[in-house]
Protein backbone atom coordinates (compact mmCIF):
# COMPACT_ATOMS: atom_id res chain seq x y z
CA UNK A 1 0.00 0.00 0.00
CA UNK A 2 2.92 2.30 -0.72
CA UNK A 3 0.87 4.33 -3.20
CA UNK A 4 -1.84 5.08 -0.63
CA UNK A 5 0.80 6.25 1.85
CA UNK A 6 2.45 8.42 -0.80
CA UNK A 7 -0.86 10.00 -1.80
CA UNK A 8 -1.62 10.92 1.82
CA UNK A 9 1.81 12.51 2.14
CA UNK A 10 1.22 14.49 -1.05
CA UNK A 11 -2.14 15.77 0.18
CA UNK A 12 -0.60 16.70 3.53
CA UNK A 13 2.26 18.49 1.76
CA UNK A 14 -0.13 20.52 -0.40
CA UNK A 15 -2.33 21.38 2.58
CA UNK A 16 0.52 22.65 4.75
CA UNK A 17 2.19 24.43 1.82
CA UNK A 18 -1.03 26.22 0.85
CA UNK A 19 -1.75 27.16 4.46
CA UNK A 20 1.78 28.46 4.93
CA UNK A 21 1.67 30.45 1.72
CA UNK A 22 -1.61 32.12 2.72
CA UNK A 23 -0.18 33.08 6.12
CA UNK A 24 2.98 34.45 4.50
CA UNK A 25 1.02 36.55 1.98
CA UNK A 26 -1.33 37.94 4.61
CA UNK A 27 1.51 38.83 6.97
CA UNK A 28 3.31 40.63 4.14
CA UNK A 29 0.61 43.28 3.74
CA UNK A 30 -1.20 43.64 7.08
CA UNK A 31 0.03 46.43 9.42
CA UNK A 32 0.30 44.15 12.44
CA UNK A 33 4.02 43.46 12.71
CA UNK A 34 4.45 45.61 15.83
CA UNK A 35 2.03 46.94 18.44
CA UNK A 36 2.39 49.97 20.70
CA UNK A 37 0.16 50.51 23.72
CA UNK A 38 0.23 54.01 25.23
CA UNK A 39 -0.11 54.00 29.00
CA UNK A 40 -1.02 57.69 29.00
CA UNK A 41 -3.81 57.11 26.48
CA UNK A 42 -5.19 53.60 26.69
CA UNK A 43 -7.85 54.37 24.07
CA UNK A 44 -5.22 54.37 21.31
CA UNK A 45 -3.29 51.38 19.96
CA UNK A 46 -0.59 51.88 17.35
CA UNK A 47 0.17 49.18 14.80
CA UNK A 48 3.05 49.14 12.36
CA UNK A 49 3.75 46.96 9.34
CA UNK A 50 5.99 46.88 6.30
CA UNK A 51 3.89 49.38 4.38
CA UNK A 52 2.05 51.66 6.79
CA UNK A 53 1.43 52.67 10.38
CA UNK A 54 -2.08 52.65 11.83
CA UNK A 55 -3.66 53.99 14.98
CA UNK A 56 -6.78 52.34 16.39
CA UNK A 57 -9.08 54.55 18.46
CA UNK A 58 -12.15 53.38 20.30
CA UNK A 59 -14.22 56.32 19.08
CA UNK A 60 -12.66 57.20 15.72
CA UNK A 61 -11.95 53.75 14.32
CA UNK A 62 -8.67 53.02 12.56
CA UNK A 63 -6.58 55.52 10.61
CA UNK A 64 -3.53 54.48 8.59
CA UNK A 65 -0.69 56.37 6.94
CA UNK A 66 1.53 54.83 4.28
CA UNK A 67 5.27 55.22 4.44
CA UNK A 68 6.37 58.05 2.16
CA UNK A 69 9.36 56.57 0.36
CA UNK A 70 11.11 53.23 0.14
CA UNK A 71 14.53 54.89 0.28
CA UNK A 72 13.59 56.75 3.45
CA UNK A 73 12.79 53.54 5.33
CA UNK A 74 15.19 51.93 7.77
CA UNK A 75 17.42 49.27 6.25
CA UNK A 76 15.58 46.56 8.18
CA UNK A 77 12.24 47.42 6.62
CA UNK A 78 13.76 47.70 3.15
CA UNK A 79 15.24 44.21 3.36
CA UNK A 80 12.06 42.86 4.95
CA UNK A 81 9.98 44.02 1.98
CA UNK A 82 12.39 42.53 -0.54
CA UNK A 83 12.69 39.21 1.27
CA UNK A 84 8.95 38.85 1.80
CA UNK A 85 8.31 39.47 -1.89
CA UNK A 86 10.92 36.83 -2.73
CA UNK A 87 9.29 34.41 -0.31
CA UNK A 88 5.87 35.01 -1.87
CA UNK A 89 7.28 34.47 -5.36
CA UNK A 90 9.10 31.25 -4.53
CA UNK A 91 6.03 30.03 -2.66
CA UNK A 92 3.54 30.44 -5.50
CA UNK A 93 5.91 28.88 -8.05
CA UNK A 94 6.59 26.00 -5.67
CA UNK A 95 2.86 25.41 -5.18
CA UNK A 96 2.20 25.33 -8.92
CA UNK A 97 5.06 22.92 -9.61
CA UNK A 98 4.11 20.74 -6.63
CA UNK A 99 0.57 20.41 -7.94
CA UNK A 100 1.82 18.99 -11.23
CA UNK A 101 3.65 16.14 -9.49
CA UNK A 102 0.57 14.68 -7.79
CA UNK A 103 -0.14 11.00 -8.44
CA UNK A 104 -3.68 11.74 -9.56
CA UNK A 105 -2.59 13.87 -12.53
CA UNK A 106 -1.53 12.26 -15.78
CA UNK A 107 1.32 14.65 -16.51
CA UNK A 108 4.40 12.89 -17.81
CA UNK A 109 6.04 9.79 -16.43
CA UNK A 110 7.08 9.07 -12.88
CA UNK A 111 10.63 10.23 -13.60
CA UNK A 112 9.26 13.62 -14.66
CA UNK A 113 7.02 13.82 -11.60
CA UNK A 114 9.93 12.95 -9.36
CA UNK A 115 11.91 15.87 -10.77
CA UNK A 116 8.90 18.18 -10.37
CA UNK A 117 8.44 17.05 -6.75
CA UNK A 118 12.10 17.69 -6.04
CA UNK A 119 11.94 21.16 -7.61
CA UNK A 120 8.62 22.08 -5.98
CA UNK A 121 9.73 20.90 -2.54
CA UNK A 122 12.98 22.83 -2.85
CA UNK A 123 11.15 26.04 -3.77
CA UNK A 124 8.78 25.62 -0.82
CA UNK A 125 11.71 25.12 1.54
CA UNK A 126 13.46 28.20 0.14
CA UNK A 127 10.27 30.24 0.51
CA UNK A 128 9.88 29.23 4.15
CA UNK A 129 13.52 29.86 5.01
CA UNK A 130 13.52 33.29 3.32
CA UNK A 131 10.41 34.35 5.25
CA UNK A 132 12.05 33.45 8.57
CA UNK A 133 14.86 35.96 8.01
CA UNK A 134 12.94 39.29 8.00
CA UNK A 135 10.51 38.40 10.77
CA UNK A 136 13.33 37.17 13.02
CA UNK A 137 15.40 40.25 12.16
CA UNK A 138 12.57 42.63 13.09
CA UNK A 139 11.84 40.59 16.21
CA UNK A 140 15.48 40.91 17.28
CA UNK A 141 15.44 44.69 16.78
CA UNK A 142 12.17 44.94 18.71
CA UNK A 143 13.60 43.03 21.65
CA UNK A 144 16.76 45.14 21.61
CA UNK A 145 14.75 48.38 21.66
CA UNK A 146 12.39 47.06 24.33
CA UNK A 147 15.24 46.35 26.76
CA UNK A 148 17.35 49.37 25.81
CA UNK A 149 18.45 50.97 29.08
CA UNK A 150 19.21 54.30 27.42
CA UNK A 151 15.53 54.89 26.65
CA UNK A 152 13.53 56.37 29.55
CA UNK A 153 10.94 54.11 31.10
CA UNK A 154 8.18 56.59 30.33
CA UNK A 155 8.69 56.13 26.58
CA UNK A 156 6.35 53.47 25.13
CA UNK A 157 7.96 50.36 23.65
CA UNK A 158 7.00 48.41 20.56
CA UNK A 159 5.99 44.79 21.06
CA UNK A 160 5.40 41.79 18.80
CA UNK A 161 2.31 41.96 16.60
CA UNK A 162 0.07 39.23 15.27
CA UNK A 163 1.61 39.31 11.79
CA UNK A 164 5.00 38.23 13.13
CA UNK A 165 3.52 35.05 14.58
CA UNK A 166 1.60 34.48 11.34
CA UNK A 167 4.87 34.74 9.42
CA UNK A 168 6.64 32.32 11.75
CA UNK A 169 3.84 29.76 11.49
CA UNK A 170 3.62 30.25 7.71
CA UNK A 171 7.34 29.63 7.36
CA UNK A 172 7.09 26.48 9.44
CA UNK A 173 4.18 25.16 7.37
CA UNK A 174 6.01 25.86 4.10
CA UNK A 175 9.09 24.00 5.32
CA UNK A 176 6.89 21.16 6.57
CA UNK A 177 5.05 20.97 3.24
CA UNK A 178 8.30 20.88 1.29
CA UNK A 179 9.65 18.13 3.54
CA UNK A 180 6.49 16.05 3.10
CA UNK A 181 6.78 16.49 -0.64
CA UNK A 182 10.31 15.08 -0.58
CA UNK A 183 9.04 12.03 1.33
CA UNK A 184 6.19 11.56 -1.17
CA UNK A 185 8.24 11.62 -4.35
CA UNK A 186 6.85 9.02 -6.81
CA UNK A 187 8.81 5.89 -7.51
CA UNK A 188 10.09 5.07 -10.96
CA UNK A 189 8.45 1.65 -10.91
CA UNK A 190 4.85 2.44 -10.00
CA UNK A 191 2.40 3.69 -12.66
CA UNK A 192 0.93 7.20 -12.11
CA UNK A 193 -2.69 6.25 -12.77
CA UNK A 194 -4.17 6.61 -9.32
CA UNK A 195 -7.37 8.62 -8.98
CA UNK A 196 -7.26 11.71 -6.79
CA UNK A 197 -10.37 11.09 -4.77
CA UNK A 198 -11.00 7.46 -5.56
CA UNK A 199 -10.10 4.44 -3.53
CA UNK A 200 -9.13 2.19 -6.41
CA UNK A 201 -5.54 1.02 -6.63
CA UNK A 202 -4.25 0.05 -10.07
CA UNK A 203 -4.19 -3.68 -10.64
CA UNK A 204 -0.70 -3.45 -12.10
CA UNK A 205 0.67 -2.80 -8.61
CA UNK A 206 -0.07 -6.37 -7.68
CA UNK A 207 0.75 -7.90 -11.03
CA UNK A 208 -1.70 -9.64 -13.42
CA UNK A 209 -4.53 -11.64 -11.84
CA UNK A 210 -3.79 -15.36 -11.56
CA UNK A 211 -5.31 -17.57 -14.24
CA UNK A 212 -7.58 -20.21 -12.76
CA UNK A 213 -8.25 -23.34 -14.69
CA UNK A 214 -11.88 -24.20 -14.84
CA UNK A 215 -11.25 -27.95 -15.08
CA UNK A 216 -8.00 -28.67 -13.27
CA UNK A 217 -8.22 -32.45 -13.87
CA UNK A 218 -8.67 -32.07 -17.60
CA UNK A 219 -5.48 -32.95 -19.50
CA UNK A 220 -5.17 -32.01 -23.13
UniProtKB/TrEMBL annotation:
Superkingdom classification of source: Eukaryota
Membrane-traversing stretches: 12-33, 82-105, 117-140, 160-185
GO molecular function, one term: structural molecule activity
Cited PROSITE patterns: CLAUDIN (PS01346)
Cellular location(s): Cell junction, Tight junction; Cell membrane
Recorded topology in the membrane: Multi-pass membrane protein
Gene Ontology, cellular component aspect: bicellular tight junction; plasma membrane
Function noted in UniProt: Claudins function as major constituents of the tight junction complexes that regulate the permeability of epithelia.
Protein name per the record: Claudin
Source organism per UniProt: Eleutherodactylus coqui
Organismal lineage: Eukaryota, Metazoa, Chordata, Craniata, Vertebrata
Amino acid sequence: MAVNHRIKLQYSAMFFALLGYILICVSTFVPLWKNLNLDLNEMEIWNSGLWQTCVVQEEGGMQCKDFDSFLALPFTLQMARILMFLSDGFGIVGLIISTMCLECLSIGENKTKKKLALLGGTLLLISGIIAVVPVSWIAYDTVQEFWDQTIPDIVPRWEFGEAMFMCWFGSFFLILGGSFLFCAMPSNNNPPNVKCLGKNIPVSLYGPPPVQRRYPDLII
